[in-house]
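Researcher: I've been going back and forth with a colleague about how Phage-Barnase-EndoU-ColicinE5/D-RelE like nuclease 3 domain-containing protein might be arranged in three dimensions. Neither of us has a model we trust, so I'd like an independent prediction. The organism is Candidatus Woesebacteria bacterium GW2011_GWA2_33_28, in case that matters for your notes. Sequence below.
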Amino acid sequence: MLNCIIIYKMLLATAKSKNNILIRLTDERFKHIIYSHKEISLPDFKLIASTIENPVAIFEGNSDELLATSKFDKNRWIVVVYKELKSDGFVITAYITTDFKWLLKRKIIWTNK
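Model: Here is an independent structure prediction for Phage-Barnase-EndoU-ColicinE5/D-RelE like nuclease 3 domain-containing protein. You can compare it with whatever you and your colleague have in mind.
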């Protein structure tokens, strides 16, 4: 007899990317984000979704992922790393940075200017 454990991922939020792809934020990914990046807290899951939908800029990642950015506060930016597939996509991680200049070394995919 085979013993199986079925784990369901709860969907916390979805957001439409600039390529009109639905991006999923699951509870598993959000737990990773808040445990690994202490500067992000529980209420920030809405900010993650809004950064995907209304970024200041989107940069190319290292492995086909995209980095959406928006202003977090006066001196900090939120970076949401996500992957787009053919019909949908998913959030990989998100974090806050004070160093926006390193992002400018990457290829800009989209900008709101």
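Researcher: What would you highlight for our discussion?
Model: I'd start with this: The longest helix spans residues 27-36. After that, consider the following. Strands lie at 11-16, 22-26, 57-60, 66-71, 77-84, 88-97, 108-111.
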